[in-house]
Write a structure and sequence with these properties.
The complex is a heterodimer of chains A (277) and B (261).
Chain A: H1 3-14, H2 18-27, H3 31-45, H4 57-70, H5 72-104, H6 106-120, H7 128-135, H8 139-163, H9 167-175, H10 180-217, H11 223-232, H12 236-261, H13 271-276
Helix pairs in contact in A: 4-12, 5-6, 5-8, 5-10, 5-11, 7-8, 8-10, 9-10, 10-11, 10-12, 11-12
Chain B: E1 2-10, E2 16-25, E3 30-34, H1 41-49, E4 56-61, E5 64-65, E6 73-76, H2 88-92, H3 101-114, H4 130-142, E7 148-152, H5 160-177, E8 180-184, H6 188-194, E9 197-202, E10 207-213, H7 225-242, H8 254-257
Parallel strand pairs in B: 3-8, 3-9, 6-7, 7-8
Antiparallel strand pairs in B: 1-2, 1-4, 4-5, 9-10
Helix pairs in contact in B: 3-4, 6-7
Classes of the chains: A mainly alpha (277), B alpha/beta (261).
Chain lengths: 277, 261
């Protein structure tokens, strides 16, 4: 960096340039959790709080460290992640196929959409007893529950996206004599992609929610199992460790999904691109 | 070339949009269609573009029936209708995806040069001004090398300066390509600036009221007396088209005609 830019930067800092102010504002969100963590740690050490119910951060860190060191964390996280992945693939796949068909073919929409909308009104957890009855208590019933959870937001998002494609853009395809298949690939797919990504992210979020429900119902491994285990042996630190793991994995997979699709969405003319520009 | 023979279009609701349209376009001819709202100008263009089918009559291009979109007929809509997810270059190449890569790239870069947007290849449509976007739309329609280019009020959303510059762009492209142009407009000056022949339409149902030849050399001076004389004739005809059945258009009614839309 040359001298001139240095002085320039200094001058900007001194006058409180917008960029510096923004960076500082980003950190402001950390104040509350840090105060909470310090307060918890102090409270337990001073004996105001009972550590058995409110685990201090040091204890949680220790538990997580043990889980990592023994490899237990990876075993549980892998089991949970695997269930989410399989359920997500099935649920999202069905949502994309049925949503597209329902959006593109009015006859199919009239046939299946009312039923799907009615099923959507059922709180998905309510299916659990039936799924256990049908598929047993092992993986199949869990994955089915997760797939059902993922299905609805994806179906709705894709259906809405297909229905809201601009007729004028379709007409451009007609003018250039695109076949049905080409229209799908060159117009339908890119036009619906932003909504598809949004609905996939919503579906993934629900997938993580439902894997907890599925594992609480009964599992011998998985992060949800850690939750139940922690409750039964009275270890709140284990419960909070599992909660933090869920938060981390949910955040990580969502960020990965967003990053993987971002290159295809750079063309958008909205706030998400304006931010970067 | 392009030949419309007793074309009519009655919509399923029973509304008669076009009645008995007879119109011919010679190779390289520029024809403008003007008329009040509801005279079926846009419907007519959609029929020629193959986006809609006539109820009776036939539309032929070089003897071949036009009943679906054809590679020989391009269309520019009122709005550019660029695909927002494609770069400028990919938008222009949209209709020539079947060509070999080198040919495609050569055509695109030549088109960009001709519309004065060389260097804009990788821009997104959202980064273009209204006039630039419409120029890209014109390039997209012309790279397929159609015989007829249809323009549906293509410059109506632009300001007067941009419009005038786009008229020049369009005429420059037309002079090298000698493509036939059929332009729908509600701007009489635009019609007189561009056209060899102006077709005045009459509404409800849409019919051809009269045709006015524009025998002025190009480039045309919008301030010349000859230009104004033609404009006046068109405005008089428009007036007449709206007061059919009453006495034919009287001179001196241009004041009201100026507000016919």
């Amino acid at each position: 960096m040359s001298d001139t830019t240095l002085t320039h930067a200094r001058a900007e800092t001194a006058s409180g340039s917008p960029r510096r102010a923004f960076a500082w504002k980003g950190w402001i969100g950390l104040i509350l959790p840090v105060i909470l963590a310090i307060g918890l740690e102090w409270g337990v050490r001073a004996g105001w709080l009972e550590g058995r119910f409110t685990p201090p951060p040091s204890k949680i860190a220790g538990t997580l460290g043990e889980l990592f060191a023994s490899g237990e964390w990876f075993r549980h996280a892998l089991a949970t992640g695997w269930r989410v992945a399989i359920g997500f693939v099935f649920g999202a796949g069905a949502g994309i196929v049925l949503g597209t068909l329902s959006g593109a073919v009015p006859m199919i929409r009239r046939l299946i959409d009312p039923t799907i909308q009615a099923l959507r009104a059922v709180p998905s957890i309510a299916w659990v007893p039936l799924f256990i009855l049908w598929f047993g208590i092992f993986e199949t019933s869990k994955i089915t529950l997760i797939a059902v959870g993922v299905f609805f937001p994806v179906y709705l998002g894709v259906l809405g996206a297909v229905l809201s494609i601009d007729r004028k853009v379709i007409e451009v395809g007609r003018v250039f004599r695109l076949s049905k298949l080409e229209t799908g690939r060159r117009i339908l797919l890119p036009a619906t992609l932003p909504a598809l990504v949004t609905s996939l992210r919503a579906g993934l979020g629900l997938g993580w929610m439902f894997v907890v429900a599925a594992e609480i119902m009964g599992a011998s491994e998985g992060l949800g199992f850690l939750l139940v285990d922690g409750q039964q042996v009275g270890r709140s630190d284990l419960i909070v460790s599992a909660i933090l793991s869920f938060a981390f994995l949910g955040f990580l997979t969502d960020a990965l999904l967003a990053a993987a699709t971002r290159p295809y969405l750079r063309w958008r003319d909205d706030l998400s691109t304006a931010e970067k520009a | 070339m392009l030949k419309l023979d007793s074309v009519s279009r009655i919509f399923p609701g029973g509304q008669e949009a076009l009645r008995n349209i007879v119109l011919e376009l010679a190779q390289g001819e520029v024809v403008a269609m003007v008329g009040g709202s509801g005279c079926g100008k846009t419907t007519l263009l959609r029929l020629v573009a193959g986006l809609d089918a006539p109820s009776t009559g036939s539309i032929e291009l070089d003897g071949a029936d036009l009943h679906e979109p054809s590679a020989d007929v391009g269309i520019i809509f009122q709005e550019p209708r660029l695909l927002p997810w494609l770069s400028v270059a990919d938008n222009i190449a949209f209709g020539i995806a079947h060509l070999a890569r080198e040919e495609r790239e050569a055509r695109v870069s030549r088109a960009l040069l001709r519309i004065g947007l060389a260097g804009y290849e990788t821009r997104w449509p959202r980064e273009l001004s209204g006039g630039q976007a419409q120029r890209v739309a014109i390039a997209r329609a012309l790279v397929t090398q159609p015989k007829v280019l249809l323009l549906d009020e293509p410059f109506s959303a632009l300001d007067a300066f941009t419009r005038a510059s786009l008229h020049e762009h369009l005429l420059a492209l037309w002079e090298t390509d000698r493509v036939s142009l059929l332009i729908v407009t509600h701007d009489v000056d635009e019609a007189v600036t561009l056209a060899d022949r102006i077709v005045v339409m009459q509404p409800k149902p849409g019919r051809i009221f009269t045709e006015i030849g524009v025998d002025l050399p190009r480039p045309r001076n919008r301030r010349s007396d000859e230009f104004h004389a033609v404009s006046r004739r068109v405005l008089d005809a428009l007036d007449g088209s709206l007061t059919e059945g009453q006495s034919s258009a009287a001179p001196g009614k241009t004041e009201t005609a100026a507000f016919w839309w």
